[in-house]
Amino acid sequence: MIADKLRLKEKIGYGFGDMASSMFWKIFGMYLLFFYTDIFGLPAAAVGTMFLITRIWDTLFDPVVGVLSDRTRSKWGKFRPYLLWFALPFGLIGTLMFITPSFGTTGKLVYAYVTYSLMMMVYSMINVPYASLLGVMSADVKERNVLSSFRMVFAFIGSFVALILIEPLVSFFTGTTGSPQTGWTLGVMVIATLCVLFFLGCFYLTKERIKPIETKNDSLKDDIKDLFRNRPWWILLGAGIAALIFNSIRDGAAVYYFKYYVQDTGNFKLPFISASLSLTTLYLILGQAFNIVGIIFVTPLSNKFGKKSIYLGAMVIATALSIGFFFIPNQNIAMIMVMQSLISMCAGSIFPLLWSMYADISDYSEWKTGRRATGLIFSSSSMSQKFGWTLGGALTGWLLGYYGFQANVVQTGEVQNGIRLMLSIFPAIGTVLSVIFISLYPLNEKTMNRISLELNEKRLSL
Predict the structure, then answer these.
(1) In a domain, 136, yes or no
(2) Which residues pair with 269 in a beta bridge?
(3) HEC readout, 359-398
(4) At 36, which helix (H) or strand (E)?
(5) Residue 219, CA distances (Å) to 64, 71, 372, 381 in order
(6) DSSP state of 206
(7) What CA–CA distances, in Å, run from 37 to 29, 44, 100, 105, 397?
(8) Number of domains the chain is built from
(9) What are the C-alpha distances in Å from 345 to residues 43, 287, 289, 293, 304?
(10) Which of 120, 155, 214, 257 could form a disulfide with 18 if both were Cys (CB 3.0 to 4.6 A apart)?
(11) CATH number of the structural domain spanning residue 32
C-alpha cells in the first residue's frame, strides 16, 4: 500500500489545499502593505514593525502546531482533520483583516495587530498540517516530486485567480457602495469563500498512508533533540528563509513600483475580448503564469539531474536577472514584463523542490533515529516561509519609511530609487544566501533511494 501510485483525483485534491492558502497568501504579499498604508491610513514604518513583531510570534507558533498534529489521533488521521476544523475560521478572520473601523491611528494599529496575529495563527493551524500531509501520502521519492509539483501548480493557479479577481472585485464593490474600504472588505470576502471550499475539497479527496515505524509515543524532548541535530533541516531552513526574503520584498514593492515609479495609468487591452488589465495586474499575473511554467519543467529536470542541482541553477539565474532588473527604465514596459516572467519562472521552480526536500528530511530523521516527527519537521517549512516573509515584509515597510515614502503623493527621486532597489538588488541578496545554504545540502537522490528502501523494508516487517 505504501508504494501505490496516487490517483489523479487525490493529487488534484492535495493541490486544492495550497490553492486555498495561496489565494490569501498572494493577496497578503502583494496588497496588504498597500492596503494598510493607502486605504487604512497607517504609516509604512509602523506597519513594517507590526509585521516583524506579529510574525516572530507566529513563526514560533508553527512548531507548536507541528507537535500537536504529530500527536493528533482521529478517524481521519493526524493531519487531515485540521483542514476540516480550520477552513471556516481561515475565511472569516481573513475577511476581518480587511475591515476598516473608524478608529484613530492608535486604534487602527491595535486592530491591525489583533486581526493580523489571529490570521497568522489560524494560517499555521491549517497550513502546517496540510504541508505535513505530503510526508504521509506516499513513500515514493519520485511520487513526492510529482505531488509537490501538483501542489505548487495549484498554489500558483490560486494566486493567479486571486490576482485576476481582487482588483475587479474591489472596483465593483467600491462602485456599488461608494466606499473603497467596503470595496476591499467585500472583495476579500469573495476570495475567502473560495478558500474555504478548496480546503474542504482537499480534506475529502486525500488520504494518509504512511505510518511511523515506532508506534509508541515519543517525548517532545526527544523530538526536539532529533530536530536540532538534523543538519539537512538546518540547511533547508536557511535556504527557505532566504528564498522567501527574495520573494516577499519583490511582491511587497510591486504595487508601489507601478504606482510611483512607472507612473503609467494605462491599461493593457486583452486580444479578442473587450477587456483590459492594469499594468500592475498584468505584471502580477505574468509572474504567476511563469511560476507555473517553472513548476512544469522542474519535475522532469529534478528527476534527471537532482533537486539540488536544479535549485542551485535556478537561484543563480534569478540572481543575475534581479540585478539586471534595476537597470530597466520605467518607460520600457515590455522589458519589465519579460524580466518579471523569467525571474518568476526561476522562483516557481524552487518551491516544489523545497517541499519535496522536507519530506526527504522526514524520512532521513526516521531512518537515523527510529522516530518520525513529520508535523514538527514540516512545521519548519511553514516557519521558514513565514520568517522569510516576516523579514521581507518588515524590510519593505522600513525601507519605504527610510527613503521617505508618503502615501498618495508624487514621490521624490530618492523614494523612486529605493523602490527600484526593492525590485532588484535587495531581493538578489536573498537569492545569493539561498545558493550558499543549498550548496551545503547533503541528501542527494542516491542517498534518499537507499533510505527509502530501508524504511519500506522495516515498515513491511511490522
Answers:
(1) yes
(2) 276
(3) HHHHHHHHHHHCCCCHHHHHHHHHHHHHHHHHHHHHHHHH
(4) none
(5) 14, 10, 12, 22
(6) -
(7) 14, 6, 12, 11, 10
(8) 1
(9) 33, 8, 8, 6, 19
(10) 155
(11) 1.20.1250.20
Tens-place pLDDT, residues 99-155: 988 888 899 999 999 999 999 899 989 988 998 888 788 777 777 778 888 888 898
298: Cβ–Cβ under 8 A, 6 or more apart, which residues?
149, 310, 314, 348, 349, 350, 352, 353
Residue 310 cell numbers, joined: 536544479
| Residues paired with 277 in a beta bridge | 268
Average pLDDT, the chain: 85
Q: Could you give the CA distance from residue 166 to residue 162 in angstroms, rounded to a whole number?
A: 6
The pLDDT assigned to 364 comes to: 86
Q: 401-404: long-range contacts at Cβ-Cβ below 8 A with a sequence spacing of 24 or more?
A: 401/43, 401/44, 401/45, 401/48, 402/45
Strand partners, 278: 267
Assess if residue 373 is contained within a domain.
Answer: yes
| Angstrom distance (rounded) from CA 195 to CA 192 | 5
Q: At what angle do helices 374-402 and 333-369 cross, to 10 degrees?
A: 150
Distance (Å, whole) CA 375 – CA 396: 31
The stretch 267-286 carries a mean pLDDT of 67
pLDDT band (50, 70, 90) for residue 3: very low
Q: What angle (nearest 5°) sits at the alpha carbon of residue 307, between those of residues 305 and 311?
A: 105
Between 76 and 263, residue with greater pLDDT: 76
Cell numbers linked to 202: 482537499
Residue 429 CA: distances (Å) to CA of 149, 341, 394, 421, 426: 26, 19, 16, 11, 5
Average pLDDT, integer, range 230-256: 87
State the DSSP H helix or E strand holding residue 262, giving kind and residue range, or none if neither: none
Q: Return the DSSP state at 230.
A: -
Distance set, CA 158 to CA 248, 431, 437 (Å)? 17, 24, 29
Highest average pLDDT, of 36-45, 58-67, 195-204, comes from 195-204
Q: Residue 359 domain-assigned?
A: yes
Predicted confidence at residue 285, as pLDDT, reads: 82
Query: Which residues 6+ apart lie within 8 Å of 164 measured at CB?
Result: 281, 285
Range of the domain at 30: 8-209+218-460
The C-alpha cell at 102 is 473608524
- Residue 78 inside a domain? The answer is yes
Whole-number pLDDT of residue 19: 94
The answer to whether 65 touches 125, Cβ cutoff 8 Å, is yes
CA-based torsion, 162, 166, 172, 177: positive or negative:
positive
- Amino acid letter for position 140: D
